[in-house]
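[step 3/7] inverse_fold.run input=structure_tokens len=620
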């Protein structure tokens, strides 16, 4: 075959984002997949977003990615999670029709000029002069390229487990990739073994849904993408719980679980354990929540969220049928675990390029992440940076204080991770500044510069956030004096009395004021949608906290400009504890900001290192 600018290996969520971004930036792209019918599949939970993950989707969309748009098009239920907390950590989530999602993404990717889908298996890299120059396919043919992006998901050396049954596979019914892992090892890359799992699928008609708690979507569903005007809820989900009987069934069969019988060596995700893992790790919990979620709008298959398992098929049936409402459940597919190889993520640089193999980029689960959202974000970053690298331009690497995508990349390449990585809002130190509603304001301009967001749309969005800013200024600056007429007007609109000069901004901050209702009556909010009004109110209510985090962000940025020499011997810095010195020697942070986040690094230790660096600079 002819040469390409970029070859993307894998057509899951990471691969599709990488290919779309690279091609829209002008590159010729070949996407190699084992089966073109499985492009952008949702093999596990058919949902996009959630706490922390929804932030990644919003940022990805602001830059010009596909996932948010695809979730809007295929979404059948939309719900914002974490609403009991402040708006900065709300997590939008869309339950999707998995077939429609895959179909929509494949149609878009195949329709992008410069993209060619190739159905084949990659068994190795082509390397010349210490730089990747393409891939070698099973059968001997080659695809030449100036850059290669690997997004193999769970297929690299994949093995499926259900009870005592063990067979090669990247997903149920799909063969794994075997030769590529061996080739990566010969290139000097360190591979690790991870594990993930999926629950059984149930026939909807066999469930007693009338007995279960209904979980509807939001009354005011919100889309992810700037390309979507509105979305609507088209289905409901249900909630039930396991019983003590399920616990006993699982405990009695742990010797048949590959996880506890020693058949699985891979490390699984701590925050998404299997049901047998929950029973062992949390014996004081007699029940566990189970969510029943449709996999398609008009389909029969129900995803059993919370019941991931690799127990034998007969045990799975007994466990499922011990759950209220599922006593007569028909299992359409049994749950299973999959072990697979990943590349130790600290072998890439901040632009996701392999340190030892220039021109080779890694993204998605191959880098040790879990989840569609993390994969998609890394895929877009790899696609963008592969093209920028070919152009000889500076890499696109958002800082962790500016974006959750920055947190994701910085955590992966800058810290040691020996288990599947999942995004949470708690991972972002400046999360109050990184809410979903600010994603476009933070990142869309860069998407426009990269050519991924149309310039007219960027200007439309910029005018929207300018309107929000002007409304906030007007509410803050307009004084309300407590004369009789003003007090009467405030009582009528807000239902409160004022006794001293104030502003509408101060009134809207009050807990005894129905801010949404008040906003509908104030001229300062004219022209804003209900969602935009909520953003303005949130910024006003949390302005003190936001200002504090902004000051902290500026402090971190200043520390980020203070480089730590790579040859620094931390043990030679007077005043540092052995723990801190060993941490610095082991992790080798690039800047003082990176050093500050290391375990055991106290403010006093940061001050000691900063003083030592300043003194060393003066003595040069």
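[step 3/7] decode complete -> sequence:
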């Amino acid at each position: 075959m002819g040469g390409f600018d970029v070859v993307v290996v894998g057509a899951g969520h990471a691969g599709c984002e990488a290919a779309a971004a690279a091609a829209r930036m002008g590159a010729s792209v070949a996407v190699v997949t084992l089966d073109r019918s499985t492009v952008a599949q949702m093999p596990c939970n058919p949902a996009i977003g959630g706490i922390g993950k929804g932030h990644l989707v919003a940022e990805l969309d602001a830059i010009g990615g596909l996932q948010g748009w695809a979730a809007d098009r295929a979404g059948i239920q939309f719900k914002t999670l974490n609403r009991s907390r402040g708006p900065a950590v709300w997590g939008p989530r869309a339950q999707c029709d998995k077939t429609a999602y895959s179909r929509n993404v494949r149609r878009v990717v195949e329709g992008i000029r410069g993209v060619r889908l190739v159905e084949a298996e990659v068994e190795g890299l082509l390397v010349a002069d210490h730089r990747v120059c393409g891939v070698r396919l099973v059968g001997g043919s080659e695809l030449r390229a100036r850059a290669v992006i690997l997004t193999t998901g769970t297929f690299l050396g994949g093995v499926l487990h259900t009870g005592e049954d063990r067979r090669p596979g990247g997903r149920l019914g799909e063969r794994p990739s075997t030769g590529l892992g061996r080739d990566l090892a010969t290139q000097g890359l360190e591979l690790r073994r991870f594990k993930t799992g999926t629950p059984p699928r149930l026939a909807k008609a066999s469930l007693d849904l009338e007995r279960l708690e209904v979980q509807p979507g939001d009354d005011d569903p919100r889309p992810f993408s700037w390309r979507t005007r509105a979305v609507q809820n088209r289905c409901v989900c249900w909630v039930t719980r396991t019983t003590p009987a399920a616990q006993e069934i699982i405990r009695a069969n742990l010797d048949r679980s590959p996880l506890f019988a020693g058949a699985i060596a891979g490390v699984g995700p701590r925050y998404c354990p299997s049901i047998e893992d929950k029973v062992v790790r949390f014996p004081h919990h007699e029940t566990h929540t189970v969510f029943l979620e449709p996999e398609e709008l008009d389909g029969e298959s129900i995803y059993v969220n919370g019941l991931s398992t690799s127990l034998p098929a007969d045990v799975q049936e007994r466990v499922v049928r011990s759950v209220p409402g599922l006593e007569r459940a028909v299992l359409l597919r049994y749950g299973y675990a999959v072990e697979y190889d990943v590349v130790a993520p600290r072998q890439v640089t901040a632009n996701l390029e392999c340190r030892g193999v220039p021109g080779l980029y890694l993204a998605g689960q191959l880098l040790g992440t879990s989840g569609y959202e993390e994969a998609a974000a890394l895929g877009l970053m790899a696609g963008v940076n592969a093209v920028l690298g070919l152009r000889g331009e500076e890499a696109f690497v958002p800082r962790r204080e500016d974006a959750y995508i920055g947190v994701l990349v910085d955590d992966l390449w800058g810290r040691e991770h020996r288990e599947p990585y999942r995004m949470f809002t708690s991972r972002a130190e400046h999360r109050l500044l990184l809410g979903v509603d600010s994603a476009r304001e933070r990142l869309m301009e860069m998407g426009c510069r990269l050519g991924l967001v149309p310039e007219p749309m960027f200007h439309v969005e910029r005018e929207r956030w300018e309107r929000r800013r002007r409304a906030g200024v007007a509410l803050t600056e307009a004084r309300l004096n407590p004369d009789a007429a003003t007090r009467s007007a405030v009582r009528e609109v807000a239902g409160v009395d004022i006794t001293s000069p104030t502003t509408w901004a101060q009134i809207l901050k009050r807990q005894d004021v129905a801010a949404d209702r008040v906003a509908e009556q104030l001229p300062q909010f004219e022209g804003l949608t209900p969602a935009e009004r909520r953003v303005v109110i949130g910024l006003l209510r949390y302005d003190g906290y936001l200002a504090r985090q902004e000051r902290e962000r500026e402090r971190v940025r200043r520390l980020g400009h203070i480089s730590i020499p790579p040859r620094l011997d931390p043990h030679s810095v007077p005043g540092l504890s052995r723990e801190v010195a060993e941490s610095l020697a082991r992790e080798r942070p690039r800047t003082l900001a990176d050093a500050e986040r290391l375990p055991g690094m106290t403010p006093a230790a940061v001050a000691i290192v900063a003083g030592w660096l300043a003194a060393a600079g003066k003595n040069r």
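[step 4/7] annotate
DSSP finds 20 helices and 22 strands in the chain.
The radius of gyration is 26 Å.
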